[in-house]
């Protein structure tokens, strides 16, 4: 099965390159640093590194408190962070700059993986969330590199998708020393996929341990003072294609009752920033953008946040947050950022990427689910009109956030034990 998988990976390589070319048409960073995706880069010249793989922005954000804990507890160990997407790369650079060594994870081809591991010489490999690459995992075991999946999650959809490769993935997972799962449900799914029961522990979700950036609350208050402190403000964060129109239609409903309301709109992917701005303008809204105006004024109805990694001050400045990827079957995004700031949350029906967190927030009264796009406008308007309900929801969301903290400390204890071996 592994030989067939490797053959399929080699045959798919031209298609992967074509995909990079196509994505680069919309986002030029996809055209950069191609050799790294095949394991070609200048060796950093160290050995015994601690390697953290975080595929994109969400995983980098989840790994942030863990990486900071590794830097604190192992200050002399070189830190290597790999990503797959340019947006993940940009987030690594924004958070850590030159204090870590960043390189793209190579494609799961034996020679590419071998070159990569030979150059970074890791003492420990930490894979964030759901990245199972058989050739990489087998190569780590062959070289005696302890491998651990941290903040591990596995949706029902992913479990079904892995079914044809279950035999291969079972063998790959047996190369892993420990799987630190976000929840009991995730742990059970990893066992169904083939992990041994003794490999899997429930440590909680590290995203609950994410730090609130210094000055985020103060910056949010400053922005509110600029655009009008009494204005009703809601944010639609991490939206995908098919969601912006629904959000804008919802905002039209809000404006009929609250004509001074402001919508902060943050598309998930940078390559869609211009398209979303054009869509907003074509529908007749008065628009400002982060890149041009910096902050909206009293005259603007919609503000497009065309920048990465800057959502926390805008969450702090909002009365209500809709978290995208949930009206379309993407699976939802991180609901904890607004929850950490006591901001009530709305989500759509598709939240399987953050299933237990979302369910917990809804159960405790910190979030509400809308059944479809048509319900978003009425739900947003109802909450924007009811300050007391928003306060209750915000306090409930913040309680859930505080209650679930501590995953990073639990994961660090496991890492310490592996490194001491």
Structure, explained:
The protein is an alpha/beta fold. The chain has 2 domains: 26-209 and 406-419, 3-Deoxy-D-manno-octulosonic-acid transferase, N-terminal domain (Rossmann fold), CATH 3.40.50; 216-404, Glycogen Phosphorylase B (Rossmann fold), CATH 3.40.50. The chain has helices spanning 2-26, 57-73, 86-96, 110-120, 134-142, 156-161, 166-173, 184-193, 216-227, 244-257, 273-282, 311-316, 336-340, 355-364, 376-384, 387-403, 407-420, and strands at 49-53, 79-83, 101-104, 122-128, 147-152, 178-181, 200-202, 233-239, 262-267, 287-289, 302-304, 320-323, 345-347, 367-369. Helix 5 links the parallel strand 4 and strand 5. The chain is globular. The model has no long low-confidence stretch (mean pLDDT 93).
Helix content: 40-55%
Distance between the termini: 32 Å
Lateral strand order in the biggest sheet: 3-2-1-4-5-6-7
The name of the CATH topology of the largest domain is Rossmann fold
CATH-assigned homologous superfamily of the largest domain: 3-Deoxy-D-manno-octulosonic-acid transferase, N-terminal domain
Number of strands: 14
């Amino acid at each position: 099965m592994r030989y067939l998988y490797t053959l399929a990976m080699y045959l798919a390589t031209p298609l992967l390159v074509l995909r990079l070319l196509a994505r680069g048409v919309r986002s030029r960073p996809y055209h950069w640093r191609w050799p790294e995706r095949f394991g070609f880069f200048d060796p950093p010249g160290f050995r015994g590194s601690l390697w953290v793989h975080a595929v994109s922005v969400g995983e980098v954000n989840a790994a942030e408190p863990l990486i900071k804990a590794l830097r604190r507890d192992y200050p002399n160990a070189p830190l290597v962070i790999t990503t797959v997407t340019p947006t993940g790369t940009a987030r690594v650079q924004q958070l850590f700059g030159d204090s870590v060594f960043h390189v793209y994870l190579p494609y799961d081809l034996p020679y590419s993986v071998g070159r990569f591991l030979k150059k970074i010489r890791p003492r420990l490999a930490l894979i964030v969330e759901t990245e199972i690459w058989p050739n990489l995992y087998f190569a780590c075991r062959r070289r005696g590199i302890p491998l651990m999946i941290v903040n591990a999650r596995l949706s029902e959809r992913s479990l079904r998708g892995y079914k044809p490769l279950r035999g291969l993935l079972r063998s790959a997972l047996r190369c892993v020393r420990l799987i630190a799962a976000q929840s009991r449900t995730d742990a059970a799914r990893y066992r169904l996929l083939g992990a041994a029961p003794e490999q899997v522990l429930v440590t909680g979700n590290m995203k609950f341990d994410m730090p609130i950036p210094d000055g985020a609350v103060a910056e949010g208050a400053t922005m509110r003072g600029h655009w009008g402190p009494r204005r009703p403000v809601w944010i639609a964060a991490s939206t995908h294609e098919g969601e912006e129109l629904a959000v804008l239609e919802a905002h039209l409903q809000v404006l009929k009752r609250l004509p001074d309301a402001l919508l902060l709109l943050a598309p998930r992917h940078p390559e869609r920033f211009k398209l979303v701005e054009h869509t907003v303008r074509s529908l007749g809204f008065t628009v400002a953008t982060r890149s041009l105006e910096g902050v909206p004024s009293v005259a603007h109805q919609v503000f497009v946040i065309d920048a990465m990694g800057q959502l926390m001050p805008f969450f702090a400045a909002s009365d209500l947050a809709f978290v995208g990827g949930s009206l379309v079957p993407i699976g939802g995004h991180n609901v904890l950022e607004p929850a950490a700031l006591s901001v009530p949350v709305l989500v759509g029906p598709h939240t399987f990427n953050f299933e237990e967190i979302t369910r917990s927030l809804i159960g405790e009264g910190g979030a509400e689910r809308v059944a479809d796009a048509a319900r978003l406008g009425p739900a947003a308007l109802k909450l924007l009109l009811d300050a007391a309900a928003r306060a209750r929801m915000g306090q409930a969301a913040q309680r859930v956030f505080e209650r679930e903290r501590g995953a990073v400390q639990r994961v660090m204890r496991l890492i310490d034990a592996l490194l001491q071996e």
